[in-house]
């Protein structure tokens, strides 16, 4: 079983993988690749959030206030450096766990589903949606991030624990999972698009694949996917 997993995790085209008779228990057993994908997702999220948080804050302000980027930038500049990274803890926790779950769940489920079904397309579709549903567990962190980034609540919430306590005390768990349905749809569809394009880029690059080409293709694919599903993010932030 270990040989079977290692065979197709090292190849983009899983159509070359044979599906031997294996037990369900051996298929579901965790392997080294599961932990590798989890750690890689965590590391990429830490770098991502730390660098792009101020930019995302400008975007969020544009969505919330309906103002141009220049106006949003001036507003945030006037608030000072002290508030620039206010609210970073929820997205840092959410993104690190989310990307870790996304990569590890998708790759792990895809591998196991292909062994069980022998169908590459079905395995990818189901794995993408399973990963999206797993990410949706972290919706409360997105909800708190929305509140902390809203300037109207700067004086109302001291920090992340305070915002969580307020939500749970006054509105209950249901409020933490507001807009769960669009989030699940967004996660599943965006995961499927991202990993499909990533696999195709690996095939296209072939022998020319390197750290630089992976970085560029990943940035382009991520940017394209984010743009396509941007309206859903606007809808979600509008429910705050």
From TrEMBL:
Keywords carried by this UniProt record: Membrane, Mitochondrion, Mitochondrion inner membrane, Repeat, Transmembrane, Transmembrane helix, Transport
Domain of life (superkingdom): Eukaryota
Gene Ontology cellular-component annotations: mitochondrial inner membrane
Example of a GO MF term: NAD transmembrane transporter activity
SUPFAM superfamilies: Mitochondrial carrier
Cell location: Mitochondrion inner membrane
Signal peptide limits: none
Keyword Repeat found: yes
Solcar repeats (start-end): 32-112, 119-204
Membrane topology field: Multi-pass membrane protein
Protein family: Belongs to the mitochondrial carrier (TC 2.A.29) family.
PANTHER family: SD08549P (PTHR46131:SF1)
Name of this chain's protein: Solute carrier family 25 member 51
Provenance organism: Odynerus spinipes
Organism lineage: Eukaryota, Metazoa, Ecdysozoa, Arthropoda, Hexapoda
């Amino acid at each position: 079983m270990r040989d079977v997993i290692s065979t197709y995790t090292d190849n983009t085209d899983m159509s070359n993988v044979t599906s031997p008779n294996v037990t369900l228990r051996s298929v579901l057993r965790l392997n080294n690749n599961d932990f590798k994908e989890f750690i890689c997702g965590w590391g990429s999220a830490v770098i991502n959030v730390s660098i792009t948080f101020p930019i995302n804050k400008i975007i969020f302000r544009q969505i919330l206030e309906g103002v141009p980027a220049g106006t949003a930038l001036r507003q945030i500049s006037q608030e000072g450096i002290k508030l620039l990274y206010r609210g970073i803890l929820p997205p840092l926790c959410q993104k690190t766990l989310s990307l870790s779950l996304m990569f590890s769940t998708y790759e792990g489920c895809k591998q196991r589903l292909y062994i069980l079904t022998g169908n590459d397309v079905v395995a990818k579709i189901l794995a993408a949606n399973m990963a999206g549903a797993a990410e949706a567990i972290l919706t409360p962190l997105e909800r708190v991030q929305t509140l902390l980034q809203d300037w109207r609540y700067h004086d109302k919430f001291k920090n992340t624990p305070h915002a969580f306590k307020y939500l749970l005390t006054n509105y209950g768990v249901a409020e933490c999972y507001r807009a769960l349905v669009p989030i699940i749809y967004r996660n599943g569809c965006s995961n499927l698009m991202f990993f499909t394009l990533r696999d195709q880029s690996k095939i296209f690059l072939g022998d020319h694949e390197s750290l630089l080409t992976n970085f560029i293709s990943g940035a382009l694919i991520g940017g394209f996917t984010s743009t396509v599903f941007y309206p859903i993010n606007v809808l979600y932030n509008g429910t705050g």
